[in-house]
Amino acid sequence: MLDSFGRNIDYLRVSLTDRCNLRCIYCMPEEGVRKVHHDDILRFEDILKIVKAFSTLGIKKIRYTGGEPLILKGIEGLIYETSKIPGIEDITITTNGILLSDTTKELKRAGLKRVNISLDTLREDRYRKITRGGDIGRVFEAIESCIRIGLSPVKLNTVVIKGINDDEIEDFINLTKEIPVEVRFIELMPIGEGRRYFKEGHIPSEEILKCFPELIPLQADIRGTASLYKLKNSKGTVGFISPLSCKFCNTCNRIRLTASGTIKPCLHSMDEINIKNHIHNEIGLLANIKKSIFNKPGEHHLEREGISRSLKDMYQIGG
Predict the structure, then answer these.
(1) 43 in a labelled binding site
(2) Does domain 11-317 have CATH number 3.20.20.70?
(3) 254 known ligand binder
(4) Is 249 a known ligand-binding residue?
(5) 255 annotated to bind ligand
(6) Could you report the per-residue pLDDT of 224-237, keeping only the tens digit for each?
(7) 11 in a known ligand binding site
(8) What phi, psi does 31 have (nearest 5°)?
(9) Which residues bind S-adenosyl-L-methionine (predicted)?
(10) Residues facing residue 170 across a β-bridge
(11) Is 27 a known ligand-binding residue?
(12) Do strands 273-274 and 262-264 pair parallel, antiparallel, or not at all (unpaired)?
């Protein structure tokens, strides 16, 4: 389905939960999140009804996110049922990887095509500090497992923060020499906990690129969010996601569903459409979905306002 700006919206990101087993400093409050009543969160059967409705309007790609989606029991079944929905061609997840190595085979059998793994450092002690207690060994196991069984491409999402992990940029780039992963450097955004680090920590992608002239630009999907590069003879690639310094709103093809049952047409907009009450009313559900797609904002204003308008934090949206 086309929005009012003529963009074909065919990608739905679904946040399954705002809970997580880590407390990354730029994402989650150290004390965790307020517990939400079970009835206030969409159940898997509700999500499937919503995804089916979206599929009739041209949604082809589904990404399940969190919080951390793998803390939920039965996610393999959700992925399997999603894979049977006519029109859905691609199912992916974004995860911190801690629980991934235990379930890679089951997830692939269920219909999962690809994974994005959040990884902001390659150092064990720093990982514990950034995540407030995570075990980086489990993440490395997950990366190896995904590559071994063919969940590819494996994308590593790395939020670069000055003074926190920017001294590891070269290490991440060199990682692509040895293993077939796509390292994706993501600009820190002024949303949620990230606001605390944004003023001193934001690094534009072009600053990194200037330091690594050996990176060779690649032809990328014009609707993709990442500008792709690679080193000569490398097994993997390097991507840059630049929502501030080089925003990609004019080609944005995605829309978001939160765990509480609201549609966010834009990550950084305060606008949300509550569709939870329409789950059992097909006509009302489709009407509200159409409305949310057609009225998707033309662009965000981070570069001008310096702060996200979103009323929800990243862990409540799923990125």
Answers:
(1) no
(2) yes
(3) yes
(4) yes
(5) yes
(6) 688 999 999 999 99
(7) no
(8) -80, 0
(9) 26, 67, 118, 189
(10) none
(11) yes
(12) antiparallel
Give residues with Cβ within 8 angstroms of 6, minimum separation 6.
Answer: none
Work out whether the CA dihedral 138, 136, 129, 187 comes out positive or negative: negative
Per residue in 258-280, pLDDT (tens digit) is 999 999 998 888 789 999 999 99
Would you say the pTM of this structure is higher than 0.85? yes
Give the residue extent of every domain in the chain: 11-317
Q: Is 1 annotated as a binding residue?
A: no
234 is in an annotated binding site: no
Which pLDDT score is estimated for 169? 98
Q: Is 146 marked within a binding site?
A: no
Q: Cβ-count burial of 254 within 10 angstroms (0-12 exposed, 13-18 middle, 19+ buried)?
A: buried
SS3 255: strand
Query: Bridge-partner residues for 45, per DSSP?
Result: none
Q: Is 252 within any annotated ligand binding site? A: yes
Q: How far apart are CA 124 and CA 252, in angstroms?
A: 35
63 carries a ligand binding annotation: yes
266 marked as part of a ligand binding site: yes
- To which H or E segment does residue 118 belong? strand 114-118
Chain centroid to Cα 75, Å, comes to 17
Give Dmax (Cα) for the chain: 55
Distance (Å, whole) CA 311 – CA 319: 13
